Amino acid sequence: MRDLRSAASVRRQQRLSVDDEVVVRAERSAPRAARHWVMRTVAEAGVTGASNQVVELLTGELVSNAVVHGPADGLVHVRVSIGPGFVRVGVSDDGGGRPTVTHPEPTAPSGRGLALVEALAESWGTTARPDGHPGKTVWFELDLTD
């Protein structure tokens, strides 16, 4: 009997479950390193195309925020969880405060990262670090069901 499922539906069913983390030092190269790791991790799990690119973009924004607003020379933890129909990325740092979405003037050089997260992710938020450390985790989730 011939299988009439589309190639896209077969790929969706073949996605791997993932729960993995990378730790980077809070320095200028951290967003690039984290983006590349996340992009490879989600691609290896079967997340491709626009979803992969959105995950890469939003991860870079959150890691950049952790580097800028977290402690200098601190560590940034980037966790990726992939399950049936979703991908979730959490970025943790030891910095205080809670991030807020801003809408800067068009000529402002920065301040748009969380607005991108808010616009492109299905959901996002901030939670206290579950491991008892000071700081926070900023996370976003994408729906992978088409």
The overall average pLDDT, rounded, is 86
Gap from first CA to last CA: 26 Å
In total, the number of strands is: 5
Radius of gyration: 16 Å
Instruction: Strand order, main sheet: write it out.
Output: 1-2-3-5-4
- Could you spell the SSE succession in H and E letters? HEHHEEHEE
Helix content: 25-40%
Instruction: Please tally the helical runs, counting DSSP H or I stretches of 4 or more residues.
Output: 4
Content of β-strand: 25-35%
Report low-confidence residues grouped into runs of 5 or more. Answer: 1-13
Shape: globular
User: Strand count, sense and closure of the main sheet?
Assistant: 5 strands, antiparallel
Structural class: alpha+beta
Structural write-up:
The protein has 146 residues and is an alpha+beta fold. 35% of the residues lie in helices and 27% in strands. The chain contains four helices and five strands. It has helices at residues 7-13, 30-44, 49-69, 113-120, and strands spanning 18-25, 75-83, 86-93, 123-128, 136-143. Strands 1-2-3-5-4 form a five-stranded antiparallel sheet, covered by helices on one side. A hairpin with a 2-residue loop joins β2 and β3 (86-93). The longest helix is centred in the middle third of the chain and has 21 residues, at 49-69. The chain is globular, with a radius of gyration of 16 Å.
